[in-house]
């Protein structure tokens, strides 16, 4: 059986004065296809190793981590594609709770700040609010976001100003509701983002696009928000 | 004073548009400058006569203004990204503005030969 080397970020604030990297060697079996399979195996060898995981198929977004220097989901990353030693670190820029687990409070605060729900004060129709297939198509590439935070935590603007810059995930969600024809708060949403920090910290370096495990394009969505602002202003 | 995180200054779009428009102006002038260099005689008199024409002066001055406005947005972004204490940031904003306004005045002197 093939052995693979790992170097994993360890930090338990109750015990460790400082974070450190711990080396592991794991035997890769025929059923160890994705990185998460191997991390789960590692956990049986060393049960102090902490990480989040849930659906193990790229839907829940729990197991986002920094894999060989690039953010991604362990559950959909092929182990065969990774160079050794496989270096695992927590998502950058967020406070570490323990080992690979980060505190996502700031990330979700930004997400909530864009009001991630349809605002519609018109009288309710008897059945659901319908959309035409064309209008519905506008939401493709936006609604698929699983809020794993890979994008926002790879964005330097989010690292420097996580309390003020909404970040790529939040802005993608913001555009998802701006683009929704059932939403009536477009102008308020644009007002909410017309800010040097909240939106305009994005300098379009596209780290978010590079890492998104769902293949989404926050930079494009941010560009569309700016387009709408220009259209509103001129 | 309470230490709240405050956002919502309701500006940013104009600067963002300004940065893009000034970039286009600079690109146009860069292209024009290459043509000037190709077409112009190499002598000092030739250059002097060329830059003595009003349209060249206007184009040059407009571009220089674009450079200074572009620099304002870019440098301000730098301070906003990396400088956290508000007092220091405000001081740097003001110093940048003073510097750029001085540059504008000096560029007028240079371009128009005053």
TrEMBL record, chain A:
Residues covered by the 2Fe-2S ferredoxin-type domain: 4-94
PROSITE patterns: 2FE2S_FER_2, 4FE4S_FER_1, 4FE4S_FER_2
A GO molecular function held by the record: 3 iron, 4 sulfur cluster binding
Pathway: Carbohydrate metabolism; tricarboxylic acid cycle; fumarate from succinate (bacterial route): step 1/1
Domain 4Fe-4S ferredoxin-type: 135-165
GO biological process, one term: respiratory electron transport chain
Name of this protein: Succinate dehydrogenase iron-sulfur subunit
Taxonomic placement: Bacteria, Pseudomonadati, Pseudomonadota, Betaproteobacteria, Neisseriales
UniProtKB/TrEMBL annotation, chain B:
UniProt xrefs under Pfam families: Sdh_cyt
Binding note for cofactor: The heme is bound between the two transmembrane subunits.
Required cofactor names: heme
This protein's UniProt keywords: Cell inner membrane, Cell membrane, Electron transport, Heme, Iron, Membrane, Metal-binding, Transmembrane, Transmembrane helix, Transport, Tricarboxylic acid cycle
GO molecular function, one term: electron transfer activity
GO annotation (BP), single: cytochrome complex assembly
Pathway membership: Carbohydrate metabolism; tricarboxylic acid cycle
Cellular compartments annotated: Cell inner membrane
UniProt GO cellular component terms: plasma membrane
Binding site for a ubiquinone: 82
Transmembrane segments: 21-42, 54-75, 87-108
Main subcellular location: membrane
Recorded topology in the membrane: Multi-pass membrane protein
Residues the entry annotates as binding heme: 70
SUPFAM superfamilies: Fumarate reductase respiratory complex transmembrane subunits
Protein's job: Membrane-anchoring subunit of succinate dehydrogenase (SDH).
Name of this protein: Succinate dehydrogenase hydrophobic membrane anchor subunit
Organism: Pseudogulbenkiania ferrooxidans 2002
């Amino acid at each position: 059986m093939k052995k693979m080397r790992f170097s994993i970020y360890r930090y338990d604030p109750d015990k460790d004065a400082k974070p450190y990297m711990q080396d592991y060697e794991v035997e890769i079996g025929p059923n160890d296809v994705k990185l998460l399979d191997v991390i789960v195996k590692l956990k049986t060898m060393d049960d102090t190793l902490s990480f989040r995981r849930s659906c193990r198929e790229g839907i829940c977004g729990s197991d986002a981590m920094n894999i060989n220097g690039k953010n991604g989901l362990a559950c959909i990353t092929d182990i065969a594609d990774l160079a050794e030693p496989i270096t695992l670190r927590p998502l950058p820029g967020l406070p570490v709770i323990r080992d690979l687990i980060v505190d996502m409070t700031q990330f979700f605060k930004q997400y909530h700040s864009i009001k991630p729900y349809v605002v519609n004060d018109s009288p309710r129709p008897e059945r659901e609010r319908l959309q035409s297939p064309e209008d519905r198509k506008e939401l493709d590439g936006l609604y698929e976001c699983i809020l794993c935070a890979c994008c926002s935590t790879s964005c330097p603007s989010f690292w420097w100003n996580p309390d003020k810059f909404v970040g790529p995930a939040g802005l993608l969600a913001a555009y998802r509701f701006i683009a929704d024809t059932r939403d009536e708060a477009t102008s308020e949403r644009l007002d909410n983002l017309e800010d040097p920090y909240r939106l305009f910290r994005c300098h379009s370096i596209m780290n978010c696009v590079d890492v998104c495990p769902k293949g989404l394009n926050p930079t494009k969505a941010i560009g569309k928000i700016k387009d709408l602002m220009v259209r509103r202003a001129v | 004073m309470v230490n709240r995180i405050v956002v919502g200054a309701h500006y940013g779009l104009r600067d963002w548009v300004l940065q893009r428009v000034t970039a286009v102006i600079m690109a146009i002038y860069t292209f024009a400058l290459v043509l000037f260099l190709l077409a112009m005689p190499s002598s000092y008199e030739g250059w002097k006569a060329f830059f003595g024409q009003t349209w060249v002066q206007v184009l040059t001055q407009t571009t220089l203004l674009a450079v200074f406005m572009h620099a304002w947005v870019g440098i301000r972004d730098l301070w906003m990204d990396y400088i956290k204490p508000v007092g220091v940031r405000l001081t740097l904003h003001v110093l940048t503005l003073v510097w750029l306004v001085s540059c504008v005045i000096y560029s007028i002197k240079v371009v128009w030969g005053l």
